Amino acid sequence: MIPPPVLKGLYAITSEALCHAPERLPGAVDAALRGGAALIQYRDKWNDPATRRRQAAALLERCRAHGALLLINDDVELAAAVGADGVHVGRGDMAVDQARRRLGPGAIVGATCHNELARAQAALAAGASYVAFGRFFPSRTKPEAPPADLELLRQARARIPIPICAIGGITPDNARSAIQAGADLVAAVEGVFGAADIEAAARAYAHCFR
Fold first, then answer.
1. How far is CA 102 from CA 28, 75, 121, 167, in A?
2. Is the dihedral of CA 19, 22, 28, 30 positive or negative?
3. Helix/strand/coil (H, E, C) string of 117-180?
4. Rounded to whole angstroms, how far apart are CA atoms 192 and 59?
5. Is the pTM of this model over 0.85?
6. pLDDT tens digits for 73-116?
């Protein structure tokens, strides 16, 4: 039996700006992977289906070359079509158990849980591979997201036996506090892909796990 992949480290999520400039996306993801990103999430709510499929397939090749994992945001069918490692689903997306059935037992299925421990426990019961809480700090990507505090991570760590992701305003300066509170993954969008030097930014995040 193949053991499940280790979900730990920097989880870099593609930005809107990159998705509006798809010719830049592969190189930006390469830079994040060189810097030490363990997971990439392809989050593209703007391009047409053909572009998204082409980009997802290209990013999967890059992740494979670096020994990293590729997840698709929201789109379970796209994840299945390109053979991605899994999917991340939010409140309004396909349910965790449905995504699990569609992608199979070996897929990674992550779930957005905002600041709700009960939602994380329900996601665990439905077959989630990891749960994501946040936002923990002011966020440029989702400023309207409900706030969460580090105590939530500590409570979740005591009750949730699967990996925990912290998202929302995470920077290399505050990532250690989230990791110490129980996060296995720290997710970043603009903190990585909005940086002038993407590789250096990713390396700064990855260093927080050492």
1. 30, 11, 21, 26
2. positive
3. HHHHHHHHHHCCCEEEECCCCCCCCCCCCCCCCHHHHHHHHHHCCCCEEECCCCCCCCHHHHHH
4. 16
5. yes
6. 999 999 999 999 999 999 888 899 999 999 999 999 999 999 99
DSSP code string of 28-42: HHHHHHHHT-SEEEE
Task: Give the span between the Cα atoms of 95 and 27, in whole angstroms.
Answer: 32
Which residues sit opposite 40 in a β-bridge? Answer: 12, 70
Q: Which of 203, 201, 154 is nearest to 177 (CA)?
A: 154
Give the separation between CA 14 and CA 183, rounded to whole angstroms.
Answer: 20
Backbone angle region of 69, left / alpha / beta, with phi > 0 → left and psi within -120 to 50 → alpha: beta
* Domains of the chain, start order: 9-207 (3.20.20.70)
- In degrees and rounded to multiples of 5, residue 73 shows phi and psi of -80, 125
